[in-house]
Design a protein that fits this description.
The protein is α/β, with parallel strands linked by helices. It has helices at residues 16-19, 46-58, 100-107, 131-141, 150-160, 180-185, 194-202, 208-232, 238-241; strands at residues 9-13, 31-34, 37-41, 63-72, 82-89, 95-97, 118-123, 145-147, 164-170. The chain has a single domain (6-176, 226-241), classed as Rossmann fold (3-Layer(aba) Sandwich). α2 packs parallel to α5.
Length: 242
């Protein structure tokens, strides 16, 4: 496939913090234009990602980018590492390759200090919250990282005959335990709801310090991941593509 024009690319992100590496978005399901490209905040999970991908193509996109953070499966991957996927291994074990020419073009523009090596990313239907779950998926797939949306976007791209890329930055490493309070308090758009978070924390008094420590580590990791995404974003703009 030919590399899509910058003004026909749709970036699909699940979380507001992921999308803000490209643009400021007001609400779930909204679309924004960045140098002509569409940035769609689709929400978390494969169902919402599929809907966002279909919408993007229906509205004229000729290239899809799964954009955001990923959980590390490999013990060698650290928060902030760039995962510029060569292929996605979906939940059924099927491999979906990204567009090689488009990937090569973006890889050639990766800023110094970021690794542009081609890696596999695995699809997971749920958040992998602990090291045991991550180790099991790593053993089954050999993928370096995983996310919940790239598989769905890849399937839509294949069905509709448009090129696809997956650009992810590692959020949690293979040993990080995601705070249960944060998972309980996150809505479908990826926002933490303060009242729900407070209730979750109060309901776990014996784990309060561990939960607070986990939230702090998660915030630091998210800043590292978002910094990586923001550093790569210019590789897609008109000037870089020229």
């Amino acid at each position: 496939m030919s590399q899509p024009a910058p003004d026909r690319i749709a970036f699909i992100a699940a979380l507001p913090g992921e999308a803000r590496a490209l643009a400021r978005l007001p609400a779930l399901g909204s679309a924004y234009r960045l140098d002509g490209s569409r940035v769609i905040l689709g929400g978390m999970g494969p169902t919402r990602a599929e809907a966002a991908a279909r919408r993007a193509i229906d509205e004229g996109a000729t290239g899809l980018v799964s954009w955001g953070v990923a959980a590390a499966l490999s013990p060698a991957a650290a928060p902030g590492d760039l995962l510029l996927a060569g292929s996605i291994i979906d939940a059924d074990g099927q491999r979906h390759c990204v567009d090689p020419a488009w990937r090569a073009a973006i890889a050639s523009r990766v800023p110094p200090g970021l690794n542009a090596a081609s890696v596999d990313i695995a699809e997971t239907p749920v958040v992998l919250a602990d090291a045991r779950a991550k180790a099991a998926l790593y053993s089954a797939t050999g993928a370096i990282g995983c996310d919940m949306e790239s598989g769905a976007i890849a399937r839509v791209a294949a069905e509709r005959g448009v090129p696809f890329l997956a650009v992810r930055a590692v959020l949690d490493d293979a040993n990080m335990v995601l705070p249960s309070a944060a998972r309980a308090a996150m809505d479908e758009s990826g926002h933490l709801q303060p009242l729900a978070l407070t209730r979750a924390m109060i309901g776990r008094p014996r784990r309060l310090h561990a939960e607070l420590r986990g939230l702090k580590h998660l915030a630091v990791a998210f800043r590292a991941a978002r910094t990586t995404l923001a550093a790569l974003a210019p590789a897609f703009d008109r000037e870089a593509a020229a």
